[in-house]
Specification:
Blueprint lengths: L9 H18 L1 E5 L10 E5 L6 H8 L5 E5 L5 H9 L3 E3 L6 H12 L3 E4 L16 H9 L3 E7 L18 E6 L14 H26 L2
Parallel strand pairs: 1-7, 2-5, 2-6, 3-4, 3-5
Antiparallel strand pairs: 6-7
Helix pairs in contact: 1-2, 5-6
Length: about 220
Amino acid sequence: MTEPGSAPGARGAAVGRRIGIGLMYGLWRPRVLGAWRVPAAGPVILAVNHTHNVDGPMLMGTAPRPVHFLIKQEAFAGALGSFLDAIGQVSVDRTGTDRHAVTAALGVLDRGGVLGIFPEGTRGAGDFASLRGGLAYFALRSGAPVVPVAVLGTAERAGRMVPALPPLRSRVDVVFGDPFDAGDGSGRRTRTALDAATVRIQQQLTAHLTEARRLTGR
């Protein structure tokens, strides 16, 4: 396990990206739009909608840079937990404020890495209708730009050989949006500033999802 208070290794995330590329392109047919919008260097937060467990691995295999995801601690059990830790993912306890996860995530950004977040906190409709405040906190605390990402097609059920997975060799669209600053330029990190940033983020993510659906026809 990653030591409490330390950032996960960049090398592990790079290995995870190579594994993700092989698996995602081997099992499905990802169509990636706008990957050039992700800054080539420096800290970045990828804010991703979430309708299926494969959304995280799909982004790891299609993003132009290695990604460290915040993943529920329940997944860090047994062999899977060891694997997730080895590829630089961050375990988070969703029942309260997980200071170890916060420190590790900020460490990724301080190092100039890419942090992946499901801002809705859990799988659902994937429409960004209900956002938690964690994304706003990381964005304001680090100053990192937020890149909205829409993963479309993983929740489709028709023709599945394996019920828990999208249909094999089906098309999955991954659409990256323009990076934006979550803050208002004042540098404030008060509760009011966090609430305002959350509203600003939700507006940006919802607009991106609408545009992504228009572009892909989904």
